[in-house]
Design a protein that fits this description.
Blueprint (H helix, E strand, L loop, with lengths): L17 H11 L6 H20 L3 H24 L5 H25 L4 H28 L22 H25 L11 H7 L4 H13 L6 H8 L1 H13 L1
Helix pairs in contact: 1-3, 2-3, 2-4, 3-8, 4-5, 4-6, 5-6, 5-9
Length: 254
């Protein structure tokens, strides 16, 4: 099942792993594996990528980074094919992502002579990028009755869905707000009228999809393999400028 109706799909450059993710989900549909199991797999894949980076095994690191992206899509796909959406899985996925992102950037700092402060700024930058992408994407999904497990504004604790416990949802939601709340607030302040504007054109959404985590990990993987590890932090710092460019385009024309 797609997150958007067919007529409103756009080329999502961060979602290159979706076809394989669907195959994984279909093959797990009638098994005891749950979406949370797949989330755990992608956490393990991310940790293996970090281990490989530390040991200068960059081809293997690239493999595990891309595998992590595929599995990151597979948990949601499995939830859809099993028809078991959950806030537990949704928040656990996001929390796992931000922790792994931080560890990956700290690892890059460790193997290069990049400033720790620039590294932290780059990490904050990629989170801001990803927040803008998710913000626009969720707005689009909600407008066209796509997948609505994610909300435009995560401002109150959701009620647990069938099959999950409220205490788990509440705990994970609070942790999610602690880790993501500041980024959500910044993006909302920068473009609080986005949900009231025109429908985002496909070309804009495709451009903003370069902020998606899958594309970010792909860039890191390619730069590691090509021997450009020193440029990873400067690249993401510089590319964060595009947050303001895309918001400016949205405000001006849409």
């Amino acid at each position: 099942m797609s997150k958007l109706p067919k007529a409103h799909k756009f080329i999502d450059l961060s979602d290159y792993g979706r076809p394989i993710a669907r195959i994984i989900a279909i093959n797990l549909k009638n098994t005891s594996f749950t979406p949370i199991h797949v989330t755990i797999w992608f956490v393990i894949s991310g940790l293996l990528a970090i281990y490989c980076i530390l040991n200068a095994q960059y081809w293997l690191a690239a493999f595990f980074l891309i595998l992590k992206s595929i599995l990151d899509a597979a948990d949601g796909e499995l939830a859809r094919v099993k028809q078991t959406p959950s806030y537990t899985g949704r928040f656990l996925d996001s929390i796992s992502d931000i922790i792994l992102n931080f560890l990956i950037f700290i690892t890059i700092w460790y193997i290069t002579d990049t400033s720790i402060w620039l590294t932290i700024l780059a990490f904050l930058g990629i989170q801001l990028q990803g927040t803008l992408y998710n913000y626009y994407y969720v707005i689009l999904r909600n407008k066209f009755n796509g997948d609505t497990t994610s909300r435009v504004f995560e401002d109150k604790t959701p009620v647990a869905l069938p099959g999950e416990k409220q205490k788990h949802v509440t705990f994970l939601f609070r942790l999610y707000k602690l880790l993501y709340g500041a980024f959500d607030s910044i993006i909302y302040k920068l473009d609080h009228n986005a949900s009231k504007g025109k429908i985002f054109p496909k070309w804009l959404m495709s451009s903003v999809s370069t902020f998606g985590l899958g594309f970010q990990l792909l860039i890191i993987a390619v730069m590691l393999v090509l021997g450009f590890k020193q440029l990873i932090v400067p690249f993401f710092l510089t590319y964060t400028i595009m947050v303001f460019v895309f918001i400016g385009i949205r405000k001006k024309f849409y």
